[in-house]
Specification:
Elements: H1 2-32, E1 57-58, E2 71-78, E3 84-86, E4 94-95, H2 101-112, H3 119-130, H4 134-143, H5 147-156, E5 175-176, H6 178-189, H7 199-207, H8 235-238, E6 244-245, E7 248-252, E8 257-265, E9 269-278, H9 283-297, E10 298-299
Antiparallel strand pairs: 1-10, 2-3, 2-9, 4-5, 6-8, 7-8, 8-9
Amino acid sequence: MRSRVTLVLAITAVVLGGVLLVPTAYARLASDDSGGGGGGGTSSVAAPAPTPPPPPTLAAGPVSVSFKGAFFSWALLDRKTGKIAGSPNMTATNSTESMIKAWIVSDYLRQLGDKEPSAERKKQASAAIRNSNDDAAESLYNAGGRRPVLTRLIKMCKLTDTKIESSKARWAYTQMSPRDAVRMGDCIADGVAAGPNWTKWVLSEMSKVQGTTADKDQQLKQGGGRWGIIDGLPTQIKTQGPISIKNGWTMLWADVQWHLNCLAVTDKWTLAVMMRYPQKNGLDYGAKVCASVATQLVTPQPGAALKVPQQPVGKL
């Protein structure tokens, strides 16, 4: 009796096992056959979507300019790392001209603290930056004590190459290197120069600089200064946020040379280009040199091909 029961149970187990096995095996075969029509049961892995490049910015790189003049130099400061790169002579100096007006305004406003400037003073501060007005800058420079304005610049912004003009401490004749110019730009952007109450205002005014290199925009004591670095930047950078600029330019009869400087500041970087070149080349020549330097430092370059990761083709 026991052997007969055992035999019946064994037969039942085999039958049930077969019932369970058949659907499982069928499902597996159906899966392997999904290629449809003798494709060998293989299927290609879908290619991954192209990886978009990071948003363009300015980064250290080679710069080649066919420059005809006595002096040309540039420097770029990465505001995240604090590293400065530039031409081999980025510690050599040029007269600052109107580029330094951004500091003169910042220094005056910082010393006010929580106090609001008079309507006249605020108008001067705006005119000194937006229109590069000499009289407005001179008035604020006098209010700040003249030479102490420049000594504070050197100390607070930790400049190492800057020299104050010896006789009358005239701000335009301050000698500054591109390396120190980007430090000054960073000093303005990080709030040291104008303080917590006025930094955003100063940067905003610098983003609203007006006027071109055209003769109609250039007057005796003020001039259009919206040109240079900003013209060399692609739209992809310009749309990332405000770009604050302050250029300086004068045709000095002492050496019959244009003394021209470009400064631009963003939340990522600060760039300065400084030069001296013959009067006959004109203002527009220097503006284009500044733009060319900026364009060459853009990375990745606009239109760079998207990178597609390579994946092997395999079986599912």
